[in-house]
Design goal:
single chain, 727 residues, alpha+beta, Lipocalin, Rossmann fold, nine-stranded mixed beta sheet, five-stranded antiparallel beta sheet, globular, disordered N terminus, signal, Peptidase_S9_cat, serine-type peptidase activity, AB_hydrolase_fold
């Protein structure tokens, strides 16, 4: 029995600061171009005097067929916005302390380097390191990266001292190709790669007030703390502290905190067993802020340097989410601000912590990408929601009020919002899944509609047409075309102690729980959530049970692939750039697969666990048509496609090209023409298999004949029934 909890804007927070609608009187419907051109906000920084701000968006440029970074400046009094720079990449925009300027890592054609941005928009170099290394999905890249095109990188990361007099930074040097023989694990790690990955070293420098650079250390390729900008640089007591990672001969990783006195410039080990983490939020008492506990309420805690804890109370949100705004501490150390994500109806806001009880700034919309003046009295954020395009807003910290300054996406402000409802579903296993229903425009009660579930793990929240969640599944355009769209998160691991223990077993690659329990409580539980959410709408007379589809990429592709080979409910699916859970990945993911399956697929004891859940081994159980859209031809995904076709199940695998012969499209597509075609392919696929529609103008109209053959050869049709947990 499914139970649904309806949530409204800020019912759990007690503070409603909804922003006024700015839609024009002549509103319009969503278009394919709207889906393509939703700007992705990357980074934002307020001016030292609090009168202006700079921010960066990434946008799809149809003319060049590239995703470009745009640096804009907005006057906080008038809202006037100017474009200062377009470049291949702009990241890590920050205010330079003690000046009116900003700094950022920018690729202006010489690789990613560090530049100064003056208050008038002039851009001048700070550090240019010509010996770059490549990040991105390209042959020979130092590290693959999912979010951008192949990117030559000179300056990898940087940090200013609080007075702006000292600069800590990391530069990369590509190593020459090593023609040595390789053995065993070094060979196995390159399976499915078409060329060996590149290697590089990372050099850490400290620049003093006199402008001279001191080399602190040169780090090897295995130090992912340094290579992935997870050094957690801090400045205190006349020292700069940063993390590095050591890897022993057996491959075990250990993070260490280094300390460098500014007076001597000589590094020492401050902590040889530092705790790894993606976020370290500073509190007003000199400690670290975290949210502890499970369930719908969490304890906001500051762990002090001596190990004691300051408890600030229980709240319906958690700080430390990597998608929330970072942490801030005022210059006098008396006030801290941390970004949070709510547990129910997920959205982002801010918690202000002083000696008094913490207070919340936020409301029905999300606040992301925030920055504040040094005193933490004024700030700016990006405000957005499922139905409100992103806008720059100012924050008065004392009163907690917000004021809209300027739109980030003026072209999208004129779109008439679709009716979008936040939901929390409770499935038959008593697991909660949050998400949204996006209703067809002009929905008519009593009429049954086709439906599509879209999932990507936990990214369904109050962000506007977020590509990390929707990928190339144009949710809003599908709703315009008459589909009921369900954006559904998988059940959160922290909702109860038992589910958290299951996820901890998986993430930490232990054997604390048996493989079948891990399978049942994660992926098969995902399927139950999707089925029960759809069933609620079927029972309500909203959805046609014979016209239901499902789509998801990455983590969502795992859920989709399992659902399609366990359930009879989904007549069509689109699975994006995934392959985890397939036997072919075992050599690359041994520890993880040992947890999920109990060993390799060649182990007779583990084989039954593969047979009950590995999608490619259950091809004969599938009934719906499956589209696999790929940025990379993973053998695991090819195996799933081949298994489906061998069982005469309708299936198509589509590989989207990279920028050239030596590169791949990225996991989150970045080439505009690929994004456009992927959305068009998804529309054509679902329209054909769920609605029986053909569009002669579709760029995929030439595929209809092949789809006709697959439909005719299919051994059966989906009957709409739910999955049953395998023995």
């Amino acid at each position: 029995m499914i139970r649904t909890i309806l949530l409204t804007g800020s019912a759990m927070l007690g503070i409603a600061l909804a922003l006024p609608s700015v839609a024009t009187e002549r509103q319009r419907a969503w278009t394919l171009d709207d889906q393509l051109t939703v700007p992705e906000i990357r980074t934002l920084a307020i001016a030292a005097d609090g009168k202006g701000a700079a921010y960066v968006v990434r946008i799809a440029d149809r003319t060049s067929d590239k995703t470009v970074a745009v640096l804009r400046h907005v006057d906080l009094a008038s809202g006037k916005t100017r474009e200062w720079l377009r470049a291949a990449w702009i990241e890590d925009l920050r205010r330079i302390p003690g000046t009116a300027d900003w700094s950022a890592r920018i690729d202006k054609g010489e690789g990613v380097q560090l530049y100064r941005i003056a208050a008038n928009g002039a851009v001048t170099p700070i550090v240019v390191h010509p010996e770059t290394a490549i990040y991105g999905d390209s042959e020979g890249a130092t590290y693959l990266a999912y979010g951008h095109a192949p990117l030559p990188t000179g300056v990898r990361s940087y940090s200013w001292s609080p007075d702006g007099q000292w600069l800590w930074y990391v530069v990369l040097d590509a190593e020459p190709y090593d023609r040595r023989m390789r053995y065993d694990a070094d060979v196995a790690s390159e399976r499915a790669q078409r060329r060996s990955p590149g290697r590089a070293t990372a050099s850490i420098f400290l620049r003093g007030p006199n402008g001279k650079d001191r080399l602190l250390s040169t780090r090897p390729h295995g130090d992912i703390s340094t290579f992935f900008d997870r050094s957690f640089v801090s400045w205190r007591n006349g020292e700069v502290n940063y993390d590095v990672m050591e890897v022993d001969a057996d491959g075990r990783q250990q993070t260490m905190t280094m300390a460098v006195p500014l007076a001597t410039g000589v590094p020492r080990v401050a902590d040889d067993k530092a705790t790894r983490g993606y976020w370290r939020l500073a509190g007003p008492r000199g400690g670290r802020l975290t949210s502890e506990g499970i369930g719908s309420m969490r304890d906001l805690v500051e762990t002090l340097p001596d190990g004691s804890k300051q408890h600030y109370g229980r709240f319906p949100f958690a700080v430390g989410d990597g998608r929330a705004s970072g942490g801030f501490v005022s210059a006098d150390g008396k006030r801290a601000i941390a970004g949070f994500r709510t547990i129910e109806n997920p959205r982002f806001g801010l918690v202000v912590i002083e000696k008094a009880k913490p207070r919340v700034i936020g409301g029905a919309s999300s606040l992301n990408h925030c920055d504040f003046t040094a005193a933490l009295d004024r700030g700016i954020c990006i405000a957005q929601s499922q139905t409100m395009a992103p806008a720059v807003v100012s924050i008065d910290v004392a009163s907690g009020t917000m004021r809209r300054i300027a739109s980030v996406a003026p072209a999208h402000d004129g779109i008439a919002p679709l009716r979008t409802e936040p939901r929390t579903w409770v499935n038959r296993n008593d697991s909660k899944a949050t998400g949204y229903i996006v209703w067809p425009r002009g929905y008519t009660k009593g009429k049954r509609y086709p439906a599509i579930v879209i999932t990507h793990g936990t990214d369904a929240d109050e962000r506007f047409a977020n590509q990390e969640n929707q990928w190339e599944y144009p949710a809003q355009l599908l709703a315009e075309r008459g589909y009921v769209v369900l954006l559904i998160n998988v059940p959160a691991s922290t909702q109860n102690a038992d589910l958290k223990a299951i996820y901890d077993t998986w993430v930490n690659e232990t054997k604390d729980r048996p493989p079948r329990e891990v399978q049942d409580r994660i992926w098969l539980n995902d399927t139950a959530s999707f089925e029960d959410a759809v069933s609620e709408l079927i029972d309500a007379g909203v959805v046609d049970p014979m016209r239901v589809g499902i789509a998801g990429f990455s983590r969502g592709s795992q859920s989709v692939n399992v659902a399609m080979t366990q359930s009879q409910m989904f007549g069509a699916a689109s699975s994006g750039d995934g392959g985890y859970l397939e036997p072919a990945f075992y050599p690359s993911l041994t520890g993880s697969y040992d947890t999920v399956y109990g060993g390799p697929p060649t182990d007779p004891a583990a084989l039954p666990n593969y047979l009950r859940m590995a999608p490619s081994l259950r091809g004969k159980e599938a009934c719906g048509a499956m589209l696999l859209q790929m940025a990379n031809p993973y053998p695991a995904s090819v195996d799933l496609y081949a298994a489906l076709r061998a069982a005469k199940v309708a299936a198509q695998i589509s590989l989207y090209p990279g920028e050239d012969m030596a590169s791949d499209e990225t996991h989150i597509f970045h080439i505009p023409s690929n994004r456009l075609k992927a959305m068009q392919e998804n529309i054509a696929w679902f329209d054909y298999w769920l609605l029986g529609k053909r569009d002669s103008d579709s760029p995929f109209a030439d595929r209809y004949a092949e789809w006709d053959k697959m439909r005719g050869a299919a051994p059966r049709r989906c009957d709409g029934s739910k999955s049953v947990v395998p023995d």
